[in-house]
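Researcher: Quick one. two chains, 889 residues in total.
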Amino acid sequence: MDRSPENYIDPVEIERELAAIWATIDGQQKDSGGIVTRASMSNVLIFCDGEAQAEDAAERIPRLVEHHPARVLVLALIPDQPTEDVQAWVTAHCRRTGDGAQLCAEHIELRFGAHSAERAASVVRSLLIADLPSALWWLSPRPPAVAGAVFDAFAPMVNQIIYDSVGWSDPPRAVLAMTRWAKSHPAVIFNLAWRRLKPWRRILAQSLAPTLVPGALQTIDRIEVHHGPHALPVAWLLLGWLASRLGWRPRQGAARTDDELVWQFESGTGAIEVKLHRVVDEPPLIDRMHIAWQGDGEHPAGSADYHQEGHHIRHYPSDPGLLPSSIPAPEQPPEQMVAAQLAHRAGDTLFTEAIAISEAMAKVMKAEGAAAGP
Amino acid sequence: MNDIHTDENPLTAGYSQKLLPQACTMVIFGGAGDLSRRKLIPALYNLALDGLLPTRFAVVGFAVDALTDESFREFAREGIETFSRRKLSEEDWQDFAGRLFYQQGDFSDAASYAALKARLEALEPQFGIPGSRVYYLAIPPSFIDTCVFGLHEGGLVAPADQRLPFTRLIIEKPIGRDLTSARAVNRSLKACFAEPQLYRIDHYLGKETVQNILAMRFGNSIFEPLWNSKYIDHVQITVAEAEGVGTRAGYYETAGALRDMVQNHILQLLSLVAMEPPWSMRADVIRDRRLDLLQCLRPIRSRDVERHVVRAQYASGFYRGKNAPGYRREERVAADSTTETYVALRVFIDNWRWAGVPIYIRTGKAMPKRVSEVAVQFKAVPHMLFNTDTEHPLEPNVLALRIQPDEGLSLRIGSKLPGPKVKIYPVKMDFRYGSTFGDQSPEAYERLLLDVIVGDATLFMRDDAVEASWQWIQPILDGWEASGERWLPEYPAGTWGPIEADRLIDADGRAWRQL
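Model:
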């Protein structure tokens, strides 16, 4: 794709340029007797910081529209762009379907400078396809709610905001900012980290089921999570989910070292100590987890270990009579997760409850004045 | 604080039942057979890839063949490599293979059931499975009784009123070959299992588009107000198969198109298309509505069979330019066979909604292409403003639900041709699942096996529905029997059926759709 400046067009020409592209594709197909379908299930806005990220986003679009055909608008903030004008560039992504027809989705890119967010937003407003839901995929590593004017310009146009907390540099501040923003805005927010946690949530739910290890959930007293660099927000969210499901409340939290965070939770049956360790030289994932429970008069103490091994999460029970179990945890590219998420436009109560506890965890951490690294 | 009761799992709260199924073992009777290799094991493998199987799950193949665990795994691997919609990955296979086991046994030998029980009781604690089991009878119908009583007498059936461990039984069609034998099968099943434990499978109901019939009808407000005799002229249901009987000739000779297709797949399809709105998506509510519909089918009395039903056999012809043999020339088919390979019917539903609307059904083998669809043709506009010349009449609207291939739906509407004259031309709005959603849809068996594991019987047939459909079919079978015909009408292989079927619909001033 040639995005050299001579190929940029004036934003007012976008629809005309798209029409010309369709006419060309139609013409080519008619010559071969084929059919062209323009499919759109949503308007998808992708916000990128800088040229390199915009190019990365562009490479992901064909896979995104294969799963979720959409009009895609890449919104690239170029801080040193010399002009205040918004620059545009358009293309279409076509793929052949089983019967030989061409299925196409539109791809529009906008480049704008640091002070042109509102100008860019005015272009976006004119390009949204009516009667379709709109989503903002926040590809930038900056948490959306702390990004300021640029987020405020695009967020009101969409029904759903999809972001990824992996890599956030200051998770407590970012978690607080996102939850506060969500409380005062109607758009549904969704963190891709939540989708990455799906296999973890499933294997925990099944391996700790009262039918398998009675008494375990009520008497958990210790959890340790080891995570790779940049995966602290993922581990944080997993704890938020566990705590919200089991009725735990965070009482205090501290950063013991640069690589270790500790929380004390309280449940109806006692205290729970939770440690998060950062492991260098690991991918940005939860690497392993240990859960221990003390048992009660009726049920014995025990523990369970979980390891991410290849594309599976394996559960190693402490009971020697039980075989390990596993669940697939394939690495999904973000565009595939976004495509899957776009189909779920309603808010997810479990996620909302999990981030509420995550927020409480951030608050007790702040109270101790500790800073947490990624 | 969430109260945690002894067997309630707060970690599963808020999840769809389908995402967190209960630990169980699936025992496949006939585990070394064709259905197991082509459909069941690949379906389970794909469910495992999607993380939809319980993490504590095992599969035990049970059959007379002399296999070991290891050779059963090889058999399963070959089935996945050949028939799975997704490629086998070594890492996933290792995980899946560790859950596969085999138990050799004779279905009619009590000792085999005792050995199966001992094997399950040895395996299940290792997997943390509390004794919940799904038995899949992938066996010829003649073995159903034997296996059902074998399981019961072998102490392999949990009480129905117990939540855990559970026992569920999956039975393949055909359930009987007439009303009497279907009732006998149901009696045997119910002597050993309670109805909620029984899952009579019809893989047609697992197809995405079939399920989409309910979504389309009851998830959109524009169709249902038109879904009645005031606006619908007629409905056509076509289930055409391109191939002849091939290797299924032995079975097909004893069945024929009416038993093989109409009694189960097509009547189930019809019930979804025509049933009244359910008040909830609960399994029994949906199944009650489907049963209501079957009970509203106007009986075709034996003496009226010729007026409403056409049966035929394919003769030699051409399929895509190649010679295709006639049915009576197929291997394992009697030279004087009167088994029908094609059937067309005119059906009426005697209720308020469908009064007077004919439903035309046709199904056959050796037809020009494989296609299954339900087409709803709406009535013409009440007053012709356009295309008043008789040469180019205004074509009625048609909503076609395609079940296979290219699952989707299309709507034919009239649109003005560009130009100074007002000329209406039919255009088709087409929605294709594959094109729009991209992802490969799961196979019907994946959906249905998962439904059984989670205990959702919505897409399975209840005993009363099976008997209601046989009750409606039986007079047709009786009429044919009484006719004593030795020759059936014929249609050349590779064509859309006999001239008699054209006359059936032509007599009403209508025509079969060109597909």
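Chain B is about 35% helix and 20% strand.
Researcher: Thanks, that's what I needed.
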